[in-house]
Amino acid sequence: MNILLLGSGGREHALAWKLAQSPRCDTLWAAPGNPGIAQVATLAALDITDHAAVLAFCEANVIGLIVIGPEAPLVDGLSDSLRGQGFAVFGPSKAAAQLEGSKGFTKDLCARAGIPTGGYERVTSEAAALAALEKFGAPVVIKADGLAAGKGVTVAMTIAEAQDAVRDIFAGRFGQAGAEAVIEEFLEGEEASFFALTDGSTVVPFASAQDHKRVGDGDTGPNTGGMGAYSPAKVLTPALQAQAMTRIIVPTVRAMTNEGMPYSGVLFLGLMLTAKGPELIEYNCRFGDPECQAMLMRLESDLVELLHACAENRLAAIDPPRFSDDVALTVVMAANGYPGTPETGGAISGIDVAEALGAKVFHAGTARQGDTLVASGGRVLAVTARGASVSEAQATAYAAVDAIDFPTGFCRRDIGWREVAREHA
Ligand code: AMP
Ligand code: GLY
Q: d(Cα 334, Cα 412) in Å, to the nearest integer?
């Protein structure tokens, strides 16, 4: 079967690497891709916002499965356009992708289905938002309703900070994504991520992970897309995972189907492990980046079989995903300046040396300039390693990081710290 993978980040390099290993995969195409993806796939110069162009490409190249990596094309309805012409697509419809595309939609769905999450109020004006803040008090969380590239959430420790965030949103900082906002109860606990695959009727657990969102060591500094991750997240015990499935994920999938918006693809649950049990922080309608890189390093099943079964509504008929007992840990190397304006064009070398040490180096924001590999985005590489424990995987990953020569880049030195501390306790 020929497969088309859409996207160009570290997540998509990991997906491409795993898809290409499947005996079911004939030609793997990727658009727009990156130099790492080009090692395992053929890149297609395709504008993925142009649905007609993607359709024409799929017809001309007899594509049997389209895998959509990032959220923007899903929220934009690309999977509907492709499914409408009979193609098998891994990724939810536009209606189902509202679980990521609208915070207010998700909170209302949770309220209807009795899913545990923080109390909230949807607001469409600055005045209403400021009034809501008075009711909630600090700390409080303010979220732009729509997609804001991970920058639309403020966890405000004081009312003054909360008021600034509200004014920012309604002054148009996030454009249309901030025409509406959600004011939300602050939840306390440790965060973890959990992923499930579903075709709208069958739901199977995929894997857990823990992300590191802040740019600096010790979880300091501004939020990023994610500076590193490891999988599994042991803090999410089998009992807590079962609760997350039965209280949050399964009722969500059932509600979406019952309301005529069946969800198909991967459901990425951001959880807060509160004193009352797991509560939903947010949903994403795609794999996490860099969680995906860590999880796929552990996946033993055929990824093509899993994603194709989701796309064809036959997840019940195949074996559930199997993972190695190993831990995998990924360290993101970012370009100086990230998460602000990153310095692009800096040369990168030593990836071969890093991989010879046992790591896998996924490309996130790289480009070729002649014979030189250079940084072309904020997050540049995702250096991923396996080990019997988080400490072991971390040691291999950082040995590999240290073998990479990337003078205009940086990374956090403490990925996995919570679990490493528990392992040493
Ligand atoms: P998001 O962009 O939705 O992933 O949110 C970014 C981060 O904000 C999350 O990873 C949490 O650390 C934090 N956050 C979001 N909602 C809440 C909440 N209700 N209580 C506490 N922290 C939150
Ligand atoms: N690493 C978090 C995300 O992919 O949204």
A: 9
